[in-house]
Amino acid sequence: QVELVESGGGLAQAGGSLRLSCTASQIWFKLYTVGWYRQAPGKQREFVADIGKSGVTEYSDSVKARFTISRDDDKNTVHLQMNSLDVNDTAVYYCSAERKGTTYEFWGQGIQVTVSP
């Protein structure tokens, strides 16, 4: 059974940093576009960043220049380095893996990130 497990969340102060990780079992991340999404209380889930098979990255405007997504295919893990955190970054962060051109799409359970003023 495919499983995506997020780790590294928690509490940070505004201006601080956190590093999220997403590790997959039963799939090879290197075949997938892996992304991070987030959902704040009372809001819809929104795109944060993703990284394609070739390493091409995309970011939402709200996190560009503050967050960096990277992949370690040897460890089947994708990281999201979050710097200069703001209270508006408080949300549950979800990892997703999508194999383009197929119906294969998987999601993690989500991990809480809370940024205090």
Characterization of this structure:
There is one protein chain. With 117 residues, the protein is mostly beta strands. It is built from no helices and eleven strands. Strands 2, 4, 5, 6, 9, 10 and 11 form a seven-stranded mixed sheet that branches. A four-stranded antiparallel sheet has the order 1-3-8-7, with no helix packed on it. Strand 4 and strand 5 form a beta hairpin.
Strands, total number: 11
Shape: globular
Tell me the structural class.
mainly beta
The SSE order reads EEEEEEEEEEE
Give a nutshell description of this structure.
By secondary structure, the chain is mainly β. The protein contains no helices and 11 strands.
Indicate the topology.
Elements: E1 3-7, E2 10-13, E3 18-25, E4 33-39, E5 46-51, E6 57-59, E7 67-72, E8 77-82, E9 91-98, E10 105-107, E11 111-116
Parallel strand pairs: 2-11
Antiparallel strand pairs: 1-3, 3-8, 4-5, 4-9, 5-6, 7-8, 9-10, 9-11
Features:
117 residues, mainly beta, seven-stranded mixed beta sheet, four-stranded antiparallel beta sheet, 0% helix, 11 strands
